[in-house]
From TrEMBL, chains A, B:
<dbReference type="Pfam" id="PF00532">
    <property type="entry name" value="Peripla_BP_1"/>
</dbReference>
<keyword id="KW-0238">DNA-binding</keyword>
<feature type="domain" description="HTH lacI-type">
    <location>
        <begin position="6"/>
        <end position="60"/>
    </location>
</feature>
<dbReference type="InterPro" id="IPR000843">
    <property type="entry name" value="HTH_LacI"/>
</dbReference>
<feature type="compositionally biased region" description="Low complexity">
    <location>
        <begin position="275"/>
        <end position="284"/>
    </location>
</feature>
<dbReference type="InterPro" id="IPR010982">
    <property type="entry name" value="Lambda_DNA-bd_dom_sf"/>
</dbReference>
<keyword id="KW-0805">Transcription regulation</keyword>
<protein>
    <recommendedName>
        <fullName>HTH lacI-type domain-containing protein</fullName>
    </recommendedName>
</protein>
<keyword id="KW-0804">Transcription</keyword>
<dbReference type="InterPro" id="IPR001761">
    <property type="entry name" value="Peripla_BP/Lac1_sug-bd_dom"/>
</dbReference>
<dbReference type="Pfam" id="PF00356">
    <property type="entry name" value="LacI"/>
</dbReference>
<dbReference type="InterPro" id="IPR028082">
    <property type="entry name" value="Peripla_BP_I"/>
</dbReference>
<feature type="region of interest" description="Disordered">
    <location>
        <begin position="275"/>
        <end position="305"/>
    </location>
</feature>
Length: 305, 305
DNA sequence: GTGAAAGCGCTAACAC
DNA sequence: GTGTTAGCGCTTTCAC
């Protein structure tokens, strides 16, 4: 279909200018005459010139790819909305530049050594760490590489200088405040695991909202981001505090369990009890590690149906 | 932390051999003496040599990255288990070689032109197409690039020579056969959209199983892979065929709707009606396009609780 | 404002 | 089995 791509110097020849000029145009450097620029641009267009990235990054010594390192190779774990959103966001920025996105699944020893090779081969302009577990080896690898590091989501044990994460605390707080403004007063909460960042942060947001409204934050059951956990927690709450009129659940999946139980008990939602939850993207503790994976989440409000 | 990485020729000097020898060792080419190989390997180890990928792919003219092109920038759409599984699988293979995985979100015009640039810049060893919509421009771009193409999941309008996809038909059939072996006889099905590959294939599998067992395949409602759709479809089925004792639902999410309705009607699952569904990872029709996104799915059996 | 030329770090062909 | 060397296609000085 297409002929062999022309090289930069071929373009130069065809356009009747020097390689220097073509290069300047491509990198839109200053000191190029309007005329030369036009000629070159036309030639590029006409012959379908596409720069060779390898040559470019070899010559320029800087390069080229932002690495997305995922400390998990469990599809169920990294197939989640939060990561997808982060990736989508990163991609949007990447598109502006001519960087590219490199994906490295670095859960195994082998994957990790691959990652550190890649980071060291000066092929990476920066690295984003995703799905870190507590005490994750990737943290060290990334730091040791000398490449700029940013975390996607936080875990409890690191407080990264650069990160992107959902506002779990603020989101939880807003969700609750919505119910407060709707007139609810006897709140309870079902929290996520308190050794996960999202679990802690959402609980914090809940307590903040309670404190600000002068309401009691004493009705609380800690749970585990699973549906069964949510269901059990709801049963517990109902037993202890039969008079409650609102529940903030720290994740949708737990809320699903809670809603099932409420329905079974014949309690009308949202008439008798209003429910809000966070659309978590966290998973329950991962198999290999006794610790939980990091939380990565996003809050929303919903007067549950 | 680390000093500047040594280059290959520096390693050669330090090891007291020629660059050719070092290069041979690295690419474990033949004709290297045991002794030389040892010396070089030790030097590589000691000085922490990591090949410069840019230089390598420039010199060798072949390079280096497998492109994962996703025709969607909607996080909700590509955050799904099927893609994650595919990616995980691809990654496992990639790890063996020293290729790398490049991620390109190519839903917008801009993203697409970026993709075609990348494919043309001889930086790609192959490309995998994901989340294609019907009549997707990526198909042409990929084909026109001259790079080997493989599809992840199929859409209805292309029959790619190379693809990876779930066995939707076979999975559906197996799921139903399981219920047949459990003694069910009066089957119904709630299908997915019949303009999506997964919708069609699962329905086909269902009909196959019915045919082989000599059962009627006449109880069918077409639906849309949404929960509400599943619920409505279930209501419809119940009205038309109050005597049915098994339902195959083409996706989990529709099954959720169906189960809710069954519960409301006081119908015991699985006592009175058994339900199986496919753990689809498809989404309902995407916003920008009037057509549905491709299906990407995986079947499983479950006697629904 | 433009051109010429010296590399970037590696591979591959060729000579020994 | 090993060493030498000419590029790969670009960027980047340095002259002009």
């Amino acid at each position: 279909m297409t002929n062999r791509q022309p090289t930069l110097s071929e373009v130069a020849k065809l356009a009747g200018v020097s390689v220097g000029t073509v290069s300047r145009v491509i990198n839109n450097a200053p000191h190029v005459s309007r005329k030369a620029r036009d000629v070159v641009e036309r030639a590029i267009e006409e012959f379908g010139y596409v720069p060779n990235v390898a040559a470019r990054s070899l010559a320029s010594q800087r390069s080229g790819a932002v690495v997305l390192a995922i400390s998990s190779d469990d599809p169920a774990l990294f197939a989640n909305l939060f990561f997808a959103q982060v990736i989508s966001g990163v991609n949007a920025v990447i598109e502006e530049s001519d960087l590219e996105l490199m994906l490295v699944l670095a859960a195994s020893e082998r994957g990790r050594s691959r990652l550190s090779k890649i980071l060291q081969s000066r092929a990476a302009a920066g690295v984003m760490l995703l799905a870190l577990r507590e005490n994750d080896p990737l943290t060290k690898i990334a730091e040791g590489s000398g490449v700029p590091v940013v975390h996607g989501g936080r875990s409890l044990d690191v407080d990264p200088p650069w990160y992107v994460d959902a506002d779990n605390r603020g989101g939880a707080r807003q969700a609750v405040e919505y119910l407060i403004s709707a007139g609810r007063t006897r709140f309870a909460t079902i929290t996520g695991p308190q050794d996960m960042h999202a679990g802690v942060a959402r609980y914090l947001g809940y307590r903040e909202a309670m404190a600000l409204a002068g309401l009691s934050d004493q009705r609380v059951v800690h749970s585990d981001f699973t549906e069964d956990g949510g269901r059990a927690a709801m049963a517990h709450l109902l037993a202890e505090h039969p008079d409650l009129d609102a529940v903030m659940v720290a994740s949708d999946i737990m809320a699903a369990g809670a809603l099932v139980l409420l329905k079974e008990r014949g309690i009308d939602v949202p008439e008798q009890v209003a429910v809000v939850s966070a659309s978590t993207t966290s998973s329950p503790p991962s198999t290999p590690s006794p610790r939980s994976p990091p939380s990565a989440s996003r809050s929303r409000r919903s007067a549950a149906r």
